[in-house]
Amino acid sequence: MPDPSKVTVLEFPKLSEFAAEQFIKIIQETLKKQSRFTCALAGGKSPEPFYQALAKFKNEKFWDKVYLFTTDERFVPAGHDYNNFSMLQRNLLAELPIPKGNCYPMPVDLASPELAAKMYEAEIQRFFNLKTGQFPQFDAVLLGLGEDGHTASLFPVVPQWKEKQKLVISLAHKSVEYGRLSLTLPVLNNARHVIFFVHGEKKADVMKKVLAAKSLLPAAQVKPLKGKLYFWLDQAAAKKIRIQ
Predict the structure, then answer these.
(1) d(CA 127, CA 129)
(2) I need a labelling partner for 167 at 20 to 30 A (CA). Which of 13, 92, 113, 219 fits?
C-alpha cells in the first residue's frame, strides 16, 4: 500500500479541480529551483477532465517554461480521433499559451511504429543531453490506468512492457487497438513526480490489484526510484481499497 499521504480520494467533479491545482503547485515549486519544467502527459479519454481543469489556469505566467512530451501514442495520423496528442491539443493546448516549439508529440508520420520509437528516443536523448544508457528525468509524469492493469501503453499481454534499456518502445498485439508507442518503465520510474489520475467504478477492481503488495501488473511496477508517487482517485475507483 502506498504512503496514505500520497493517496487522495475525492468525488469526481472535485477530483479534476484538485488535480489541476496540485499540478500547478508542482510546476511552481519546480520553477523556483530551475528554469524549465518538463512533463510527459497521458493520452486516452480518462485524463480529459484533468486537462480541461488545468486549461483554466491559462493566465499563469510560466507556460513558456513548460516542455511537454507524451507518455504514449497510438500509431494513427495526427488529427485522428484516437491520436493522443490531438486529444491534448483539443483539451489543453488550445487554451494554454505553451509555445509550439515546447511540445514534443510522438511521431506518427513515419514508415513504422518501430522507426517512430527510435526517432522519439533520439529526440528525448537530444533534449535531455543524455549519454548512452542514461534515462531522462521528467519533472512530472501523468499516468492513467487501464482495466487490465496497463499504464501508458505498457500492456501485460505484450512482453515489451518489461523493457529495461530503451527509452521508447513500439508494440502491437491482437488485443491492443492500433500499433502503439510508449515510454518505458525506467523512464517513468526516473521522474520526480509520478501521478496516477484514475476515476470510474470500472477501475475499482484493477486499482485494488495494482496496490496489492505483490502485484505483477505493469502499473504496479511504477515505483519512482527517487521521486514521489501519487494516486489521485475518485470515490468510485477507490471503493475497494483500504487506506490506513
Answers:
(1) 6
(2) 92
